[in-house]
User: Fold this.
Amino acid sequence: MLKHKETVFIVFLAVIVFGIFSQTLKYELVWDDAEYLQNDAPFFAGHAAWESFRLGFFVEGGEALARSYYYRPVVIASFMLERSLWGLKPWSMRLVNVILFALALVALYRFLLRQSEKPYFAEIATLLFALNPLNVDNIVWIVGRCDLLLLLWGALAFLALARYADRPKASRWILSTAAFALGVFSKESFVFFLPALLVYEFVRRKRLTAAYHLGNLGVAAAFFLLKNGVLGIGSPALHFLPGLGKNVPKILASAGYYARSIFLPVAADRFLPDAELATPEYFYLGIGLALFLTILIVFSFRNKSLALPTALMAGFVAGALGLAFARFISYPLYARYMMIPALGATWLIVHALGRLKEWLRFVAAFGILLLFIPSVVLRALDYRTNLEFFQKAESDFPEEGYLSYQVAAAYHAKTDYLNTELALQRAMRRPLDIKIVVSARLLMAQVEFNRADYPKSRRWVESLGDLPPEAFNRFLRFQAVHQTALIAVSEGDAAAAEGYFRDNIDKYPERWDSYRELAHLYLGREEWDKAEEVEKMMKDRFGKIVDLEAARVREEFRTLSEAEKADFYSRHRNYARAIEILRGLPSPAPEEEIGLVRLLFRAGREFEARETIDRIAKNRPGNVKAWNAVGMLYLREFLRVEDALACFRESLRSDRNQPEVAGLAVQLSGYLRTAQPLTPPPRQSPRH
Assistant:
């Protein structure tokens, strides 16, 4: 039973945790959150939670049914359960993360209460760990749920083992093994708890329960066998450098980065690119951490109270060092992997504070909290938007091309295409992984597509043919064909577009983008039966998330006016039919003339669009509204800065008293001075 003091502390802890992290519930999906939950989530629709045991977690490139290096069925099941209960929403998924963290802290607190008789040891240790800045990433980053579940099941496994040590009953170590199993199936690195569990029981009982530890080993072995069977791979291969003389310095430097993250979390870089690792600072910090852990291990033989925190630190640091040689992660060195070592360090620090007088102990703990809390708040603010997250990362590592690419992708998601292009210019002039080269070229193809420069968009896609096959995963191949299909449908080649979409559906049935675009293609051409066929295919595969109702659209179409039909055709990319309707209007209004220009550009008929603009200018000489409207059309919809600037200058010649237009003209002039336009590389002989 909980004592009154313990209940009060748990309530206080919950208020602190929810108070600090409640601000994050309204934040956007960030980085892998968006890739996993937007790209893979449709695949999970209609699946029962138990089916998570036959799925890979966080599939490479965001494409379900392709190659995954992770097998985390408990995490997948949690998202499936959320989808079935209230849907996958950023605020609710983060709320679940906060709840899981709070539950883990309660279990940890209950465990720590049994570990020391010093007053307030458990309270101070739990509070300092709860507000450690390293935990922010695992809480606010939604797919950090893996680590929150690792913490929760780990705390429960140790709590059950502690109860078993106090009063040996088989049911208690069985509960610990059950928690161990849930932990391993939540995240592979849970196996790093194995030596710590062994050390803890031996220190507490001076003996080991063979059935318990063999049971944990059996669970771990079963997990990896099942993972290999489901994913078709074992543990991912590590790529060591040639020669021991290169590997040892990298291991020590990686350990140095983790040492800084553990003992100076307020200044820890969220992740570290390989290029930043080769500094004397990290190398010597790594040597220091190795010596520190060695000394701790030696002292643990004399002072048994140091054994478990030392085992937690050493086990998880050693495990994380192996990932420094992995190539399937964007940044193998990530501070959030140090959550458990940070717990061990907190334990050791609070243990050392126990030597102080009580009032000094509270002052020291309060001082640490004063350092931690502002860092937690500021670190969480980086997650407000995907754009802010990567802008902060790019400012920390300005030479890292991958981060510039991610900034470009974030701008593109916000339809800020000019800044997309500027960020891509930075990215493509820096070293990039070959798969990011593919992604960057595809993003440039999308930028040119948005500009309605279809020939250049097509050339960017075709330039992918010069890259080696290993540069592509399923998702990138899908995107290349999908972009080609969008170009075809915009240019009016419906038959070619239909073929591309159908081909993608056959090869990548898990991607719903092609289904949706194919349905729009049929709707825009009044091929209602085909649209209904695609709708049925989508609903059979993706279930409730499909909101298309072709029959209803068909009925509503019959009631539309001519102008409304033009808008309908435009929305479904049948630009030729929309142009035909607008040109048939007896006396088009100015906005309809601008609409015609828009459609001509979208149809790839640039010459006719410019002729129409010239006619508008000739019919309305000196009309600043007309020039400004055309200028904004060029700028906002087609990213044609030079054309937009020419229109605004023409407007200012007629009326200089337009401060907003003048300011915009200055901004565009500055953009043109700084921009370094990218062009598709010349085509080589095809490789695939």
About this structure: The radius of gyration is 30 Å. Residues 404 and 427 are 5 Å apart (CA to CA).
